[in-house]
Structures are given as C-alpha cells and as structure tokens.
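Q: Could you fold this chain for me?
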Amino acid sequence: MDVVIFMSQKMPLPFFLQYFHYLCRNFVKMKCNYHTHCTYCDGKEPMELIVKRANEIGLDHLGFSSHAPVPGENDFAIDEARIPEYVKEIHSYQENSKTQLFAALECDFIPGMTQPFDHYRNDYNMDYLIGGVHLVRPVNDDRLWFIDGSKREIYDDGLDQLFDHQVEKAVTRFWEQTFEMLEQERIDIIAHIDKIKMHNQHRFFTEQEPWYIALVDHALDLVRKHDVILEINTRGLYKKRCDSFYPSDYILAQARKMHLPFVISSDAHKSEELDLYYNEAVAKLKSFGIDQLVYFDNKNWHEYSI
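A: Sure. Below is the predicted structure, expressed as structure tokens.
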C-alpha cells in the first residue's frame, strides 16, 4: 500500500513530525540486530563475512558491538588501540551494503575498574552503547566472578571462592552492580539483563523467590527512569546454555506494563547466528502484548510495529 502525505504550508511542523512517527510505528517493517561480535573481540568470524551474511538474509540494520576493554589480560575484549581501526572498517562497508551498519561497543561495568562509558561514546564517536555485567566484583575485593562463558564450573568456582556459596549474596551483588551501571553510565541498551540465571540452571536459586523478584523490580524501575532499551536476547537458547530468553517471562510481563522499549538481539559471534531465534523472539514478545520494537536512526531511537 502506498501512503501519500499532503503537507500544507500552514501545517505546523511538530504536527507533521508527530504524524510521520505515527506512520513509522504503523507501516515500517524492519529486521534489525544491534548486538554483534566479530574477531575484534571474541567473535569467531571477520566483519566482512558478517556483513555479507546480513545482506543475504535481508537485515535492515546491523550494529557491531565488540566488547569494550576491561582490566587485565583477556581474550574476549577489544584492545583499545584497535578501536579506531574497528570503527574505520565498519564505515568502509557502509557504502556498498544494503544493510545499514552501525558502530557500537558492549561495555562491561565493573565498579572502580572500567572506564566511564562516555569515554568510548565521545572519543570514538560510537553510534550507541550497550551496557552489561559479565564480571561481578565483590564488595572490597579486586577479584572478579565471571558469570558468562561456556564453562559452568567457572561460575560455580567463583560462587564458592568469592562468596562462600552464599547464593543470595552473590546474585544480589550482580544486580547491585547492574543498578550502579544504570545509575552511573549513559547507555542505550542493556544487554541480557538477567544473565545471572544462565549457569544457575535452576540449581541454586529460583527466579520466583521474593528477594530475587525485588531485585528485578528495582532494575526495571531504573531502566524506565533512565530511558534504557531492553533487549530480548536469543543466544542462551540457540547455544543451549539456557532454557529461556533473556529476559525471563516475569520481566517481559513487567516490561509490558511499564511500556519499556525493546530490540531483538541474537548476540551473534558468527554470521550464521545473526537471525537465530528471531521469529521465536517476535512470537514471545507478542504473546505478552509487546507489538513494537525500536530502531536507530539519526542518533535517535524510533518505534515500529512487529
């Protein structure tokens, strides 16, 4: 269906813009993935192959979001000296790509250890930033609990060695660190907000416990307060490390009541993962009455219907 807009010279511009955004919400159909890793961090394929695949499957938008630098030697974060090269390579593919490309970082928040996120936004002219917690720092301790990755035993060892297997204390610290990030840093999207559940796998705590629900509710209040976008992240499912999306059904239900904005993220580390479980994520959102996502354009985020 063609939509024709007649604009009178007397029509006030704000009204026209409101009408344009109404049309975007109701007629724009897009497929976007703003959370993607390549070989600049812990991704398994070079950027070129990922861009090629994005064009083949018809992605409208693709955002590269390498892990921002973290302290200490590691093999999963980009070296800060390579960030200009990373941004330049993204830009080099933009002209000939049918998929619109964006430069971003997924920034880890570790209290007292990581750079302020605005350092990357301003000094390297990032289009947007994703914030997340993968490394939990106990209070008054420089050691870190790695809650991500493929090895469940690392999660278990950290729980024992850093928190004496006091599960509520450890999980609370993850959420407190999330609260601090939301209060202190300027982010566009929060990554896999309840990633703490991945290696738990229903063993040490349940997501229905009152203390856990209270932590989740506070995090969502901060997400709303600071205008942060939630992602429904499919990686746990297709990697078979989790039996549900991030976030949980409870969070989806609360987010719907709070009218929080969403993107769908595959958190791809290989080109074949770019749209895995995308349709399932759409179905999940719709099952909770969430029928809009947001897309990035001209430094702002806009709604569209799914």
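A (continued): Residues 88 and 103 are 9 Å apart (CA to CA).
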